Predict the structure of Acyl-CoA dehydrogenase.
Amino acid sequence: MSLRPTLDFLLYDWLAAESLSQRSRFADHSRETFDAVFDTCERIAREKYAPFNRTVDTQEPHFDGEKVILPQATHDAQKAYAASGMLSAAQDYEMGGMQLPYTVEAAANAFFAMASVSIGSGMLTTGNANLLMVHGTDLQKEVFAKNEFSGRFSGTMCLSEPQAGSSLSDVTTRAVPDGADHENDPLGPRYRLKGNKMWISAGEHELTDNIIHLVLAKIPGPDGKLIPGTRGISLFIVPKKLVNDKGELTGVRNDVALAGLNHKLGWRGTTNTLLNFGEGKYPVPSTGSGPAVSGAVGYLVGKPHEGLRCMFHMMNEARIGVGMAATMLGMAGYHASLEYAKNRPQGRPMGLGGKDAAQPQVRIIEHADVKRMLLAQKAYCEGALALELYCARLVDEQHTGTPETADEARMLLEVLTPIAKSWPSEWCLEANSLAIQVHGGYGYTRDFPVEQYWRDNRLNMIHEGTHGIQGMDLLGRKVLMEGGRGLALLAARINSTIERAIQIPELAVYANALGKALQHVGSATKAAWATGKPGDALANAVPYMQAFGHTVLAWIWLDVALASIAADATKSIAACAGRLGATRYFYHYELPKIDAWLKVVETRDQTCADLPEEAF
Amino acid sequence: MSLRPTLDFLLYDWLAAESLSQRSRFADHSRETFDAVFDTCERIAREKYAPFNRTVDTQEPHFDGEKVILPQATHDAQKAYAASGMLSAAQDYEMGGMQLPYTVEAAANAFFAMASVSIGSGMLTTGNANLLMVHGTDLQKEVFAKNEFSGRFSGTMCLSEPQAGSSLSDVTTRAVPDGADHENDPLGPRYRLKGNKMWISAGEHELTDNIIHLVLAKIPGPDGKLIPGTRGISLFIVPKKLVNDKGELTGVRNDVALAGLNHKLGWRGTTNTLLNFGEGKYPVPSTGSGPAVSGAVGYLVGKPHEGLRCMFHMMNEARIGVGMAATMLGMAGYHASLEYAKNRPQGRPMGLGGKDAAQPQVRIIEHADVKRMLLAQKAYCEGALALELYCARLVDEQHTGTPETADEARMLLEVLTPIAKSWPSEWCLEANSLAIQVHGGYGYTRDFPVEQYWRDNRLNMIHEGTHGIQGMDLLGRKVLMEGGRGLALLAARINSTIERAIQIPELAVYANALGKALQHVGSATKAAWATGKPGDALANAVPYMQAFGHTVLAWIWLDVALASIAADATKSIAACAGRLGATRYFYHYELPKIDAWLKVVETRDQTCADLPEEAF
């Protein structure tokens, strides 16, 4: 079973991705070049990723005292990925890129996420380099970003610290100027960093010649104290090994030391580390004039104290990336359990009772409850994929649209990103649980892949902003910003879908249900903020996000159903029936859940917030 | 943090467990003797189980070619358990038992499930021996059951087969008479068995002198064919090593061979096996007269063809046991995440924004969303514990009540058992996911216990009857049997709680909500069966069970709240506030979910059932 038919339909029939090639940036492209990328990625994922997904789970990264050891398969997979050009898929030709739309890049990466999510750590390297392309100097782009795009170097994002976790305002990594001439380093203002960074994915390994850490740290004020809050944060390039201004390794190891590997529940193909910066394990001789300063050498990116702004620039794409990873883990489980259900004989149809026990067993896909579990997975995962691609398409619009459509896309992305990140993290995880359930006892064994998908997927509600943080971002910032313009824009798009759907007899009832759901989300948003107190509104930010997400997905499915009906004349009838079935499932089984979630939102329920600690 | 205060409240203040000592069977008992049992079990669980929960996860059972190797800790824990007398806690004094109420036995076992669910495999041995006490001959009780109660032997249940799974009517293990005098064996009619049994917990190990397998198999008819369906199933005692009529090992190994260990997602302290019966690995010389017959030696229990009836006799207690295991895994995660939330500083209260970033961080239990995740866990797990104890109390009523109350208890158990099994399996698993979420990234590492609880708990929706089977049992059998008497009895109990609660101002609104929910479940039950077609009703048996379960839990919480208010004069105010908070949470956040589930039930929604296979 291939992902391609679903992907093709969503990209070409639904999102009209081919029309992007009419834009000057993508003028060399066509459906043929897009498809060639998909062919390549599908093949590499099939040959270099999928067969080793269990290998990277059982052969966890370990430190031999000098190096972090990863399975050979990981080395091979990453080499093949880099060789495919995917690290710089969206970059300009002059940077060695393919100038592909982000929509196509995101879709192509879906193959790797589905085959082995934890081998595929290209996302961080690309994100790191992309950030430098926006905020770095020309030389930083040349020395660091370009070598990351080629796969010679890899990249990390070093935000969290052990004592701070999600609370970035409490970052205590210090960066002090490295000598009197520190401003004059060609690679950027040179600092020395000291501090500890936690949860750093791909923080240490031998997959590439060098690792380029992007590190959030604070430059002390004249009094030597760190500025409280997020305002004091600056961003630094801290290479594992020092390089000269041609990007060549100087032979000097920077003072970045592995303090420990995290041993995880899943996602074990990607090393996750605690890193010590500037603890003195690899002391770097003072290179500047004036009194010697110790610490890891780092080069400032952008202006001091604007580090978080630079980092946030990458946030939308990183969060869409997490949403896509969650989606494809769900999809992998859906395909595996569908395959199993089609082949496993067990039991007999309902109503026969013991009377027809002499008849042969049927395959379990013939049981209504198994079909329910499969259709739920389809509705969750294919719906989530549609949402992620829709958001990716908005990213392209933001980058290459007219000023007006670009601004609209930016605003829509602000509101949709928390959903694109959180919804698949929650519901495609539930899909993975259903995939286990379809397998019965076999699903609970490590002889089948579904238990690993479920373990891998559990990460996605945690990293890149927890579920709680996404909820507060949505209800506390995104639906309020610019006078609620994002919500209004989204409502306009939803209403446009409703207007089209209401004219199709079989969809009219869903159009009406979606209209009601949208109104309910709108009124609940107002009610949540009726007192103007963040505490009143945000105590139920997660239930709000759950209801918001289900409404968005109901809209996505209705819009996909419209496209499916429109395309039916030329498309496989079964695929269309499947999409309409999933739409029906979503409106019958899922959308009605929003009332329960919104109930506590609109009453500003403080049951949880008010319970005293000693009562737990 | 101890489980005791919660357990004490539920047992003594809510269920009046002490009053059981007024019954003649329990006349020697009192709250003091019950408490002494709890003290012992709490201590053994703390000393011999909890410290080794991670050990049994990482040192999975393995086969060295001759023996199954388990960690020493498992041997020690099981010895301590047997020495405590818990294996025969509920048995008659003359069998070496303590004649404890089942309610007390179940509560005492909760400590082990919470400390390390997968070490504690006493449940199968006790269940096995209990079955023999009901259906076995006097000598079978003496030779097999008694040695199981003492811990000298252990027991298994061998139902599933690789080709049949949940479909017991497709069992193909054959049992043929072992010679002409096979009826005359003192241990029971002697047969020879051939077949494969899958998913056999504790199927092979060196923890005890012998393993007593209870095996479902079919005796071929005169034509040599197996009778189709479940009617053809008989039950046999198949010891791993043969014994004489004094229970002494004869030195002859029976032909039961380990075919493979299952490598599981969790619950790794318990060996899970594929066993081959009578494949000839350990051939047993023919002992009877007439032509030699090969196969594993087995002794018939009860009458031929009544094996499933014998097995079902144990089903209610086994399913309550699974529900209790799921509950205590949830509770373990709740306690761990509560502890973590009370100690982990991170972030600042909502509304301060960046302005007060100079203030110290607060502990995460001060954040509303963390409190929401903790209160949800409390509502799920303490509510589930109350339900399990309520069901255990019904078991005691069934065994020691007046004919009328015993029959009522039996009927209520029929209806409540699918809920007692399924509800904690689903919602205490969700609690474990929330416990991970409270821990953030740390929860995803194996340095904290919560990821293991989540993995361990995933089994409970699968074994001892899957979620789907529980749903069909509830809607397809239990609410219909005896003219719907079980549902009527349950409704009467719920209404009695409503009548009391409606008089308490702070509970009246919940009493009304429960009344409506009960009506909704009732009308949905009728609507589901309006056409009389099983296919129409049972396509949504799982959503029905979810709604039914939430309604039952809402009732349990309201009843617990009543007891809590009644007890408040003498009890800790904080504990009472906690129970009222959990009740409030359940009515505000959880009970409203039932409408979405019942919607598809009452419309007999066939969206899933009707979708053709090729449309997936």
